[in-house]
Write a structure and sequence with these properties.
This protein is of the alpha/beta class. It folds into 6 domains: 204 residues, Rossmann fold (3-Layer(aba) Sandwich), CATH 3.40.50.300; 164 residues, P-loop containing nucleotide triphosphate hydrolases (Rossmann fold, 3-Layer(aba) Sandwich); 70 residues, Arc Repressor Mutant, subunit A, CATH 1.10.10; 61 residues, no CATH class; 177 residues, no CATH class; 144 residues, no CATH class. 47% of the residues lie in helices and 16% in strands. Strands 3-4-2-5-6-1-7 form a 7-stranded parallel β-sheet, with helices on both faces. It has a 6-stranded parallel β-sheet with strand order 8-13-12-9-11-10, sandwiched between helices. Helix 16 crosses helix 22 and helix 36 crosses helix 37. The longest helix has 20 residues.
């Protein structure tokens, strides 16, 4: 195989120690040497990169090709250091110039790349957008003969990929047709990915006999777990999974543990630390700084860390060295995600990738089904963003900037070549062009050869501020007023929609009520009303596909008929748990793929439907719209993959009737959507990408209702709806299910009361790690602990020689100065060091300016309180935003209990959090 290469390349291959080509290299190299467009599908660590790069590097070296000959595009925003080192090694040995160009490349480096371009350029899809319109860089891009797209399976499903498909056609218009090579992990729709890459692409399946050892475990809670759950403030079932996670990390060399949300990753990492402070583990997710993530990856690779608790931030091809086990905490929700994650272990050639799903209660069914699908390599099909008008907008403006003037027919021809725009109609394209003229991004010029477009003045700024299709979101820190510590973060849309004082939402597995928003800080207090609160992470949960949920229904139906343990890769405890749940549910009806159960509890109507996230959301939104219209009372719906939970002025019979007679569901949802918060959120992102709203405009400063009305029935509204319907709904399968109900192929059964699965649905609706509700006395204990742990500065106002920072709990009942014996001790914030100098000046009878006098008098008033009330004054003054005047009012009251005293301090903190923004 390697004999096809030049002598120089063959020598380098020997030097590198390659003896036999891998399957990816054996199948891929001949096609690439022939110049074919190729999609190489293979797991991580199987030599895909070398299969693509070695033949191309050899060609470029032998032909002494002009720069830039090869463009290597990767979706990773921070380039894999290991990959870069490997490519640089081959390039240097072959005397080829290689360079990296992305958002962090310095101005000097960019200038050097323009003046002396490399033969091989490694870049990102976003940077390709930028260099396509560069006057001098375009000249170098005319020489491109080969393009490699790494991790193409990640790009295909996002707007980044849609944008890239158009950019490749713009590049082809400039450079002529070039060879296209895609590198992909195992993917559910290889034919679609191949078409997306380019015409006549040959699919090379190089997955070979890759072995996966995947098992579902159900760690059963013990009496010790029950006890420990109080200390760790998590449920006993979570403690049991945590304990097993700890055992597995300790018994393996290097373990990656994946969770579905950032919040769960943080909770697990912090509780693991409480369980074993010596265990070398860290958390890794997208909200952490890039520097911290890279440091964790390096420490894991060098085996300083035994484990990383991660989200999807570690799914892509980041080199994290040798890993002998991947743990998935609760169901991964999709087969492709499980394969991708488990593939991070044993990813060297010939090794088995080992993964364990730690599951529990109802989650065990889904985990079992997904594990079975993974071992059979039954992956979900891929969805692409077809005819995305915001992406098309940026590319039309890009073409106008590239050519300064381009015919509309020519622009249409280039765009239509891209796979996601193959069905783009000429009238739809022209309508978008006219819209872009009205919003002053381009102007239409009528010429003898037909209409053309030219960029307007604001086109340049718009284009460069929209190089990325990844939405920009501002994050707010959520601070508990009880502990005074951050408990999580919320994005700007959520705060704008639900950030008013009194609103309730779920974060860190608990319900919270908003007290106030100040800058980028949301102050909250805990509440017990979890049912009416809104999940803060609704958009973060991965949707469970229709096929998986249907198979869960089938497993429920067959659970008593077959030996589940023999058919599914699960342990005995999981099989027992599945049987236990079915037996507990059997007192009602076991809902499955052929039977829906409708039941009610208090003001909830629960529809058990094994249809997955998107179908249930589709039917749920339809029901909410219909019931609201018919009753005149707003109906709310919350869904999970196996339930639609309705709160409405309706009976189970009403709901059953609406489901059985459902029609025109897409039209009904579309009408209702335009008034929803979901529409508003998506509209802002689309409007930013289409130049309607400035990129940096704050969500809470926009008159959104007015803007939405202004752009009704325009491409902005059209694209917002298209995006929502693709990401959030599944109209086809929803209509199929509703049709099956009409034809009696699926039975709807009403049962009064709340079944076991109904109860589980209400309990687990809001979080993967639900914490038990804290009784009020526990809340006050936490508040008292925080006050007692607060550090304050003690300053003697009599001599000013004594100035010391202490925790409130360490202050004497009646503090006095150890230097002069006086009891005139001020309680100050630790940062208030300057007051000592002010006090010395005052004692020496030196004049003070107004600011210093105010500081002195405030300190003196706090000292007066300490003389009278002793340590109680220090406790009151430790409250956030509690000054001497407020503390004096609190201390002057007669408190029958200590709890009443702390309640007053807490109420003062609430008032401060609520009103402080208005003081600024």
């Amino acid at each position: 195989m390697f004999r096809q290469f030049s002598q120089q390349m063959q020598s380098l291959i020997k030097e590198k120690g390659f003896i036999e080509p891998t399957l990816a290299q054996r199948l891929g190299i001949p096609e690439i040497m022939k110049g074919s467009n190729a999609l190489i599908i293979a797991p991580t660590g199987i030599g895909k990169t070398e299969a693509a790069c070695l033949p191309l590097f050899d060609k470029i070296s032998s032909a002494k090709a002009e720069p830039i000959s090869l463009l290597y595009l990767t979706p990773l925003r921070s380039l894999n250091r290991d990959l870069l080192d490997r490519l640089v090694w081959w390039a240097n040995k072959l005397d080829l110039e290689i360079a990296v160009r992305h958002g962090d490349t310095t101005q000097n480096e960019r200038k050097a790349q323009v003046d002396a371009p490399p033969q091989i350029l490694i870049s990102t899809p976003e940077t390709l957008q930028a260099i396509l319109v560069g006057k001098r860089f375009r000249e170098h891009l005319k020489n491109v003969k080969h393009v490699i797209i790494d991790e193409i399976h990640e790009l295909v499903q996002s707007k980044r990929g849609t944008q890239l498909s158009l950019a490749l056609e713009r590049l082809a218009e400039l450079a002529g047709q070039f060879q296209r090579i895609g590198l992909s992990a195992t993917v559910g729709s290889p034919e679609l990915v191949a078409q997306f890459l380019g015409p006549n692409t040959k699919i090379i399946h190089a997955e070979g006999p890759k072995k996966y050892d995947i098992k579902v475990e159900y760690p059963k809670p013990t009496a010790a777990d029950e006890t420990l759950s109080d200390d760790l403030v998590i449920s006993p079932t979570t403690v049991a999974r945590l304990r097993r996670l700890h055992e597995l990390i300790k018994s393996h060399k290097s373990v990656l543990a994946f969770t579905n949300t950032r919040e769960t990753a943080e909770v697990l990492s912090s509780r693991l630390r409480s369980l074993d402070r010596e265990l070398a583990q860290e958390v890794h997710h997208g909200s952490l700084s890039k520097e911290r993530r890279i440091k964790s990856e390096q420490k894991f690779k060098s085996q300083e860390l035994k484990s990383i608790i991660a989200t999807s931030s570690l799914e892509l091809g980041i080199d994290i060295g040798s890993c002998d086990l991947v743990i998935q905490y609760l169901s991964p929700r999709q087969v492709s995600r499980l394969i991708q994650r488990v593939g991070r272990s044993g990813h060297r050639i010939g090794e088995t990738s080992k993964g364990i799903i730690l599951s529990g209660d109802e989650d065990t069914f889904e985990s079992a089904v997904i594990a079975k699908h993974a071992t059979e390599k039954k992956l979900e099909s891929v969805k692409t963003h077809e005819l995305a008008l915001d992406v098309l907008t940026s590319q039309i403006v890009g073409l106008a900037l590239e050519y300064r003037e381009i015919g509309i027919n020519k622009a249409y021809e280039i765009c239509k070549r891209a796979y996601p725009f193959r069905d783009l109609g000429k009238k739809e394209f022209e309508k978008l062009i006219e819209f872009l003229d009205t919003v002053r991004l381009i102007w239409i010029n009528q010429t003898p050869l037909g209409p053309s477009i030219r960029p307007r003045r604001k086109a340049f700024e718009y284009y460069f501020s929209n190089l990325s299709m990844i939405p920009d979101t501002v994050q707010y820190r959520v601070i508990s007023i009880i502990e005074g510590e951050p408990i999580g973060s919320l994005d700007e849309e959520f705060v704008a929609e639900h950030g008013r004082p009194g609103e309730k939402f779920i974060c860190s597995g608990r319900a919270w009520r908003v007290i106030g928003v100040d800058g980028l800080k949301v102050t909250v207090e805990p509440v017990e009303d979890i049912e009416s609160a809104i999940p803060a992470w609704e958009g973060e949960l991965i949707p469970v596909p229709f096929a998986i949920a249907q198979d869960v229904g089938q497993l429920r139906r067959q659970a008593n008929e077959s030996a589940v343990k023999d058919e599914y890769p699960i342990d005995s405890a999981s099989a027992t748990e599945i049987k236990r749940i079915i037996e507990k549910q059997a007192s009602s009806i076991v809902p499955d793929d052929c039977t829906w159960l409708v039941e009610s509890h208090e003001n909830f109507i629960i529809i058990h439907s094994c249809c997955g996230s998107l179908v249930n959301d589709t039917i749920g939104r339809y029901l909410a719209a219909i019931l609201t219209a018919k009753t005149g009372v707003a109906a709310t719906v919350k869904i999970d993959p196996y339930r639609i939970i309705v709160q409405a002025k309706a009976t189970p019979e009403n709901v059953k009737n609406e489901i059985e007679n459902a029609e025109n569901i897409e039209d009904v949802i579309r009408l209702a959507l335009v008034r929803s918060s979901l529409f508003k959120h998506r509209f802002v992102h689309v409007a930013r990408r289409m130049g309607i709203i400035a990129k940096g405009a704050r969500y809470d400063k926009l008159n959104l209702s007015k803007i939405i009305m202004q752009y009704a029935n325009t491409p902005v509204e059209q694209e917002t709806l298209r995006e929502i319907f693709l990401d959030k709904f599944d109209i086809i399968n929803a209509e199929g299910v509703l049709d099956a109900i009409k034809k009696k192929k699926i039975k709807l059964v009403i049962r009064p009361g709340l079944s076991y699965l109904g109860e589980l649905g209400l309990v687990h609706q809001f979080a993967e790690v639900i914490k038990p509700a804290q009784p009020e006395e526990e809340i006050f204990k936490a508040f008292k602990r925080r006050l007692m742990a607060t550090r304050v500065r003690l300053l003697c106002m009599s001599c000013a020689d004594y100035s010391l920072v202490k925790q409130v709990k360490d202050i004497d009942d009646q503090p006095e100065c150890p230097k002069c014996g006086a009891r005139l001790i001020a309680i100050l914030h630790p940062s208030k060091q300057a007051i000592r100098k002010i006090t010395i000046s005052r004692l020496k009878k030196k004049p003070l300016n107004d600011v210093d006098m105010h500081e002195f008098l405030t300190a003196r008033r706090s000292a007066d309180l300490v003389i009278v009330y002793g340590k109680r004054a220090a406790i009151a003054l430790a409250g956030h935003g509690v000054g001497p005047e407020t503390a004096a009012r609190i201390l002057a009251r007669l408190h029958p209990t200590q709890e009443a005293f702390y309640k007053d301090i807490l109420e003062a903190e609430r008032t401060f959090a609520r009103t402080s923004p208005y003081w600024k």
